[in-house]
Description:
This protein is an alpha+beta fold. The protein has two domains: about 5-80 and about 135-220 and about 240-340, Alpha-Beta Plaits (2-Layer Sandwich); about 85-135, no CATH class. It is about 45% helix and about 10% strand. β2 (about 60-65) and β3 form a beta hairpin. Mean pLDDT is about 85; it is low at about 220-235.
Amino acid sequence: xxxxxxxxxxxxxxxxYHCVSRCVRRAYLCxxxxxxxxxxxxxxxxxxxxxxxxxxxxTIDVAAxxxxxxxxxxxxxxxxxxNYELSTEEVMNRWTQLYQGPVLINRFLSEQRSExxxxxxxMVDELATVYRERLSxxxxxxxxxxxxxxxKANKEDGVKGHFWESRFKCQSLLDEKALLAAMAYVDLxxxxxxxxxxxxxxxFTSIYERINDLHQNQSAEExxxxxxxxxxxxLEQPTAPLMPFDCRAQTSTAIPFALHDYIELVDWVGxxxxxxxxxxxxxxxxxxxxxxxxxxxxxxxxACGIMDLFGVxxxxxxxxxxxxxxxxxxxxHGMKAARQLLSAA
Length: 345
């Protein structure tokens, strides 16, 4: 049964979410249409760039993403604390990157602010309250992403109507085990679909971007001295980088694992699910699974089928039970999978 969105998006349960949007019928987000041979590969850039642009506007950080032929995945963290630290001016500056806003806001952000009356400034504060809530609202984030892509795709195709299948699907990631499984699931989409041989070959995924950035770091440092400190790169709209990794968990704005541990894990799982090595699990499992008390073979199953095995919540049996109690629900789909797959090794 379809659940109201507000019951799925609860920051009291978790700030982490896995979202999926799929094209309607035979509409192509990316890839090559096998019937007409028309290529839509250029649309992958639309999605990745829009995701990063929105991450720079909203107080929502992107941990992982994957852009496939007819759908995309994104794992995000809603940073509500940072949202409430924004000043009224910062809120308005962010919001007007997406929407023109009323004349009152344009005056507030211009030199005319000093001429505004107290009642006008009060109205600005009222609008800022509304916009502030939207800047940390995952539904508004996904709306701005999907609507932008749909309009561009429909214009390019010369058609009208729906481009996406109803609303986006969303899973709450209740704990670190769920986050790790969801990120691995997203990054390994091209490998499971037999589009790529290895994670480092999976273009338009976050794991590909992270590995590529690591390879480019050294060369970037070598040429850094050739640029003046005041050099600026002009972009049509600012973009935000992917969330950093921090295994020390000293900040809530970082992914609570070490980057090299995560890359090793994705590489290991990718080899285990490779079409030519189906079911082959290396005896030497990544250390991160031992530290988190996760059975390696069961984790592979979870990282390959998280969308089918779980419903709107993903986590260990303890996290799922606690969430069920908070939501006053007798049952959460995926409880059996939580006990079996995210159990201690």
